[in-house]
Every structure is written in C-alpha cells, then in structure tokens.
Amino acid sequence: MKKIIFTDKAPAPIGPYSQAVLSGNTLYTSGQIALDPQTGELVIGDIETETKQVMENMKAVLDAAGMNFENVIKTTIFISDMNDFVKINGVYGAYFNEKTAPARETVQVAKLPKNVNVEISMIAVL
C-alpha cells in the first residue's frame, strides 16, 4: 500500500508526480529544486543559496512524512557543473550527522528542470 505525501511547505509538483510516496516504512522523494514554496519562484543567487533552498524543501517533505534527515538512507544529487560540488557538499553536509550520513551519489548532468544548478532526491526509512 502506498501513501502520497504532500505539504504546502514544499513546492507543489509541476507535473504528474508526488512530492513523495511512502510505501511500507520507506519514503521515496521526488527530486527537489530551489523553488520557493510560497511564491513558486526560483531561489537562485549563488550555488549555496540554491542548495539551501533545495535542502529546506526536502526537510519539509521529510517532516510531512514524520521523518527527518536522520531517517535518510540514500540521496542522489544531480548538478549541472561538477565544479560546484565542494560548495554544494558544504551546504548539504550541514543537514546530516557525518557519522550517520546516508549513502549518496552525485552526478553531473547536461540540464536540469528550469535550468537550475542542483536537484536532490532521497530515500528514507522510519
């Protein structure tokens, strides 16, 4: 049985997908980009600001499912420029305990939705 997770504290889906789906005790999130959930506008200034908005959006989705970053077991980070990795990693890392951080891969891609620079998805377990 699956349960659709939705919160107005994260950007509403802009297509035929859910913010997250809870199946059993496992949460699968859709990728989050740096959209302000209140205005629907992109939050882009520098890569750190963009990444922080992505992580805050993800925090809201996790919270809506009754979880937090300690529940995250796997993340995928898509970035448009691998040269931004260190800065993205600095912001991303502030949300996790290094000793219990999730597994992760980071992939440079040719293009992301709305021409953003970073998109992150997660898998979490209760």
UniProtKB/TrEMBL annotation:
Q: Which GO terms describe its cellular component?
A: cytosol
Recorded hits in SUPFAM superfamilies, A to Z, give: YjgF-like (SSF55298)
Q: What organism is listed for this UniProt entry?
A: Flavobacterium cerinum
Q: Name one GO molecular function term.
A: deaminase activity
Q: Which Gene3D superfamilies match?
A: RutC-like
| Name assigned to this protein | RidA family protein
According to its UniProt record, which protein family does this protein belong to?
Belongs to the RutC family.
